Amino acid sequence: MKECTLRLRRLWPLPFLFASLLGAETLPLSEQKRELLKLKREQVKEQTGTGKTSWVSPLVLSLSYTRSRDAAGSEGGLASAGVSWDQDVFRSGGIYYTVEQADASGKANLLAVDLEEAAYLKQAYTLKAQVERDRLQLQQSELTLANRDIDLIITRAKYKAGSADISELNRVTIDRDSARSDVIVVRNTLRSEVFELQKLLGSRGVDTVALPEFPLVPRDVYLQNSLELLQYTAQSRADTAAWKVTRSAYLPTLSVNAGYGYNDYRGDTLDYHGDRYSYGAVLSMPLDINSRGTVEASRLQSLQTQTAQIDRKMELEQEYDMRAATIGDYQEKIGVAEEMIAMYDDLYTFTQGQVKAGYTSSYDLESLGNSVQIQKLEKRIQHYNIQIERIALYFDTRIYKEQ
């Protein structure tokens, strides 16, 4: 396994070439799902841009008209128009960390969309591999049923001839019924898989989706490119920046303000009109009894995210090792199937001569031929099982997006 991993690492640029095959137009997803993912990414980008400039205060435009009457009975009307602006220019680092938080949150949210897309793709390609595998398994089950039918014919003849007892006939009959049930179960499973895959594909047919030969992602590449861990990294940056924004809210803030307007007063005894303006600066700092607790709670949230990332990394390491071991088991099964093919081929050649010489029936030869085909199908089935494990690892990473 170690030698295989080293070889894969040396060849690893090849999967990045493979990744370019998974372009947006060839993804096994319906048009509606692709459009939904596109809209979500656009929304995240808009929200990120807004977040980066959220510290900028708006210009306030105002128009007003007031009619008044005093105790002496004099009446007048005041029309006013103006523009004002009150802007923080220093927040003890709060402005910088507001932009940092928006940027990191945007990356985390985009990675969340990538995770959603990867989950769709993982499900689609896994189902495609399962469909191809279970089509072979259905053939295998039908061949196994054919062999159980042959066993039943032979055993029934032996029972009637007195060379087999009723318990042997019952066992063979039960085996044959079990084989029939297996065919039904595999057929139903295959139908369910096709249905689930069709929901992801929309109007596209199941057989129009190609199943590439997915590579096994090396362990270090898997951990470095894990979408979940990358999202945790971005979220940790966002939480750290949020903590510093919270902290800066209780430190000195410098703001500037300016205003300009025009007043027009018309009254019974007095008329006036003209410009007005103002400008100034304010240095302030809140004194809040809850400031320490609020800042500490924000800091603890940042630490939680960092701890969760470490914990998840350990889980992913274990998951990778488990899947790599499972792939090794499937490869071992392929080796067993090759040994069985060699044995059945030898027996088939021998039995073929026995049938021609009249020493045995053609049923034995047919059963051995079926057994050879069953083992050949087994090799292909295990190949798809290996692909299913590789698909799970591949779409846990951002590699599928590399172009």
UniProtKB/TrEMBL annotation:
Keywords assigned by UniProt, alphabetized: Cell outer membrane, Membrane, Transmembrane, Transmembrane beta strand, Transport
Presence of the UniProt keyword Transport in the record: yes
Compartment(s) of residence: Cell outer membrane
InterPro entries from the UniProt entry: OMP_efflux, TolC-like
Keyword match DNA repair: no
Family matches, as Pfam families: OEP (PF02321)
Major location category of this protein: membrane
Similarity comment: family membership: Belongs to the outer membrane factor (OMF) (TC 1.B.17) family.
Entry protein name: TolC family protein
